[in-house]
Specification:
heterotrimer; A alpha/beta; B mainly alpha; C alpha/beta; A: alpha/beta; 9 helices; about 25% strand; globular
Chain lengths: ~240, ~260, ~250
Amino acid sequence: MGEAIRVNALTKRFGPLQVLRGIDCVIDDSEVVCVIGPSGSGKSTLLRCMNGLEEASSGQVRVHGVPVHDPATDLDALRTEIGMVFQRFNLFPHKTVLQNITLAPGKVRGLTAADARDRAEALLIKVGVLDKRDAYPNQLSGGQQQRVAIARALAMQPRVMLFDEPTSSLDPEMVGEVLAVMQTLADEGMTMVVVTHEMGFARRVADRVLFLDDGQLVEGGTPADVFERPVEARTQRFLSKVL
Amino acid sequence: MEPMLWFGWFRADIIAEYAELFWRGLRMTIGVTLICIVQGSLLGLLVGMARLADARHAPAKHLCRLLLRWPATVYVSFFRGTPLFVQILLMHFAVLPLLINPVDGFLISGDAARDLKQDYGALVSGVLALTLNAGAYISEIFRAGIQSIDRGQVEAARSLGLSFPRTMYHVVLPQAFRRMLPPLGNNAIALLKDSSLISAIGLSELAYAARTVAGAYSRYWEPYLTISVIYWMLTLALAYLVSRLEVRYGRGDTR
Amino acid sequence: MTCRLLLLAALLAVHGSAFAQPRTLVVGSSATYPPFAYETPARQIVGFDVDIITAIAQKRGLTVRLVNTPFTGVFASLNNGDIDLIISGVTINDRRKQSYDFTAPYFEARQLIAVPAASPVKSLQDLAGKKIAVVTGSTGDDVASRAFGKTSANIRRFDTTPLIIAELVAYGVDAAIGDNGVIAYRVQQQKALTTVSDPGFPKEYFGIVVKQGNAALRDTLNAGLAAIIADGSYARIYRTWFKAEPPVLPAK
């Protein structure tokens, strides 16, 4: 088991606003890490720094040893190893479900149409949306769209999966189906970093929980450590509000 | 030709006399418009993207700004900021004689230049001016269309490892195109009518035919009413084509 | 006695100065038609017409005051007495003769072909199959249309004479046909062009216009015109503007 992601003294500022104030953390292969914290704490920004969607103001992020923000790094190639699932799904509305999933494997990995289709259908079965393979995203429910988005990210066979509040835009009755897919992934040993408000999921599935507040990594540990025996006052205050 | 009066006053005979000129003019107008729509759109796409060109790190970042963004911005500003009529005259009487000249043409000289200039000079000047003019306006449509696509689309595509060109081609442009069809259609119609200005440099298109008849007979109703009706028909046809395109590409769009 | 002589002398001096002062002709001209009458950047009105009327007036001991009048209103100005005469490239024709009086012709107007200096073209027929630029609806347009077909693709029509010359200079056409005065003036500004005249081109004449019935002024102007033709100043003025020898003008 090696290090999947290493974050060193990461800071991020948007103009005058300091969003990340020096984050240090390591995520190992096959680890499932949930990042929790209040709004504006920098959780999403931290996640987005991991695949280069945000630049670092200072500090370093390495994914399997490759520095993300180094100009010499081939970021497109690195991103094929990192899958990202967004809060608002970001499916391509002009393409069918199947086309959404086969696009990147076909163009970037060079898969033949047939191979890409096979892989896509296998993934659709896995996430439980095979019957919608020829539908357009606007014909799907939110939960179905997010599951397609997960399948799309998985189609590139990444080594790491990042989830940016994947259920926050969903109606409550659909949250479960998406979390179920994520649990399956975790059980299969995928390295996952999940920014979420779903404390139940974090408690059940996470190997570690990181609590971020105001750009700082305040506390981290096993779910039991963080949820039952929080050390920091800020953690306690946050948990008392959400649990 | 004896007067052929319609409705008791419209001298259709003077139009019939110059029928060949109108017919030639119609073909020329349609041809020029189509060529300029295609070329203008291609140019507009390139310039529109150049206006958005950016890179993450220097020196690529500065090169982008200097070699792509800045020239594109200047080009758009000039061709939107000066009258098309002036651009056509400048192109034909100032720029093209520098480039195509039997004596000292930059691009083409000698007898080939003379033949080219005589047979196609006005056409080349007109098409060039109109293309550059259209390209500037269309580039703004492309730029706005591309920028209107949700950032999340680009983020999702890039996160999958799709390069910037691939992201543009497979994800952004197809969506932007659907949104740009109405203003592009408008532009095409404007282009059709703007092409009438090329008559000023002697190109034998529709407006030229009307001017000739008006000059010969000092009658203005007949020739100008005739080409008005023709332009109107052409505009309706173009508008219909655009609406068919909008229907065809309208599938699957959520927002 | 000396007192009366002095008084007489004073009276004579006053009246004499009135006689000695020349009468002024108020001249209407539309100064937008080079080379006949146009405005310089310094807002002075110059041109062939200006020089001719000045020379004529001088011969008759008169001075000239130019009034720049738009062509559409110049005849009305003549009729209501705001101006004494019009010299503005006005063609003598029967329609106008019904309402106004003309002097003898002071300029022969005909069509002229402008070609590159080395062109072998020597007549209108030599232009068959060649590209010709004309001003839309002008006499030149008419001439070319009659000769080669009104819908011929070889006839290229433009809005103004400077444009047809520009097209010729840019090698877009083989020849340009227009009014001789304007063509000759433009050609002499371009080194590489020359003019060709075809005897088949009909001749028209410019005349000075006076109010109908003003025989006195008309005779004065005719006399002056004859005088400047006779002593060569007409030819000199003609050469200045058109770089060519003037043709012989008919007496009427």
